[in-house]
Amino acid sequence: MKTNMTAPVTGLTMGLAMSLTLVTAATAFGEDMHQHGVMISDAWSRETTPGARVGGGYLTITNHGMKDDRLVAVAAAHAGKVEVHTMTMKDDVVVMRPVENGLTIPAGDAVKLAPGGEHLMFMKLSHPHVADEPFEATLSFEHAGEKVVVFDVLSMRESMARMVDTDDHHDSTDHSKEHHNQ
Amino acid sequence: MKTFRIILWSAVGLAVVVVLALFWTTSQQRSSTAQTGLLSNPIPLEQPGDGASSGNRPMNGSPFSLIEANGEPITEAAFAGRPTVLFFGFTYCPEICPVSLYMLSTLIDDLGDERGDLQAFFISVDPERDTPEVVQSYISPFAHNIRGITGDLASIEALAASWGIFVEKVPLDDGDYTVDHGASILLLDRQGRFRGAFDHRDNPVIASEKLKLILAL
Ligand SMILES: [Cu+2]
């Protein structure tokens, strides 16, 4: 949340109002507010083919708290290892890397893991991701603690539609391939 | 105020002219490229920077001796005489590879009778982990359209390089590794020559038109 510099009065008023709201909320909920600062939404994965060693997971993490938080670990019963990965396209080359030292979720902000960018990488799968068979994963945050998240599993077809929604696709008049994630 | 308005409207007018001119030039280029593609000159179907990066891609790949996912040996002879689609990837790829395979297989399904003798191959860039069995099971949902290839790493790297496909094994901190790889889907004519490319980010309608062009060659 940034204060609009060109409207200092409005900005100040809004800022004051927000601080008041936050103070009230913090007072009312106390420790509770702190605990539930992180909210997960829109968690999904795509079905994996039988031989797939890995599956991708996507979700939005919103930090309603007043300090930055960090996703430090993810665990799932069907995956021997789960990591947060970045994925970028450099021209036509796919580059995927683990995110080291956890994924920061800035206070008052949301981080969206979506196709074409960051994802949870479920590795060493003992069970494939099957369409319409949701699975659970436990996300551990530095401050917010553990959150059990249910991931919907979409069929390939549904996941393609979801990718169009998130603007991962482009027509070939778009040459700015390196800026797909946003 | 009046002067300001004149300047503003001139700027708007100029912008419109520029946009129209750009649009016209682009569409001219596009139709002329498509025209060239239909002739039997070995000229790539697209301009550099158009869709999947195909600029400066070699016209011919090198000979190879690898293993098909069904366990049989396979060489460059398999590409001759039929329009052929090549895609390099690996089974530790959670998004681009399955999405590309799904897109390609769906495009081929959608061709219906127009499919003719089109063939497609998924070539593993991680043959150390992707044994023929693993590849076969990975592509199983698409096996009616796509065949798998694996083999030894050096031969795969040489084959990929000969088609201008970047492949690099990258060690990770935990002792594991990943493979950075080109994700372009290559289109070869019946003579095994490179004629165009697309990738998973391309509009499926345009990708489908490109597939039809190599069928028409
Ligand atoms: Cu990954």
In short:
The complex is a heterodimer of chains A (182) and B (217). Chain A is of the alpha+beta class.
Name its key features:
heterodimer, A: alpha+beta, Immunoglobulin-like, 3 helices, 10 strands, 41% strand, B: 217 residues, seven-stranded mixed beta sheet, two-stranded antiparallel ribbon, 9 strands, globular, binds copper (II) ion
Continuous helix count of chain A: 3
Gyration radius of chain A (Cα, Å) is: 19 Å
The quaternary organization reads as heterodimer
Mean pLDDT across the residues of chain A is 79
Biggest sheet record of chain A? 10 strands, mixed
Q: What percentage of amino acids of chain A are in beta strands?
A: 35-45%
What is the overall silhouette of chain B?
Answer: globular
User: From the coordinates shown, what is the CATH architecture of the largest domain in chain A?
Assistant: Sandwich
What low-confidence regions of chain A span 5 or more consecutive residues with pLDDT below 50? 1-35, 167-182
Structural class of chain A: alpha+beta
CATH fold call of the largest domain in chain A = Immunoglobulin-like
N- and C-termini, Cα separation of chain A: 18 Å
CATH superfamily of the largest domain in chain A: PCu(A)C copper chaperone
Q: Number of helix segments of chain B? A: 5
The end-to-end distance of chain B, rounded to whole angstroms, is: 61 Å
What name does CATH use for the topology of chain B? Glutaredoxin
User: How many domains, in number, for the residues of chain B?
Assistant: 1
Number of strands of chain A: 10
Give the CATH class of chain B.
Answer: Alpha Beta
Helix fraction of chain B by DSSP (H/I, runs of at least 4):
25-40%
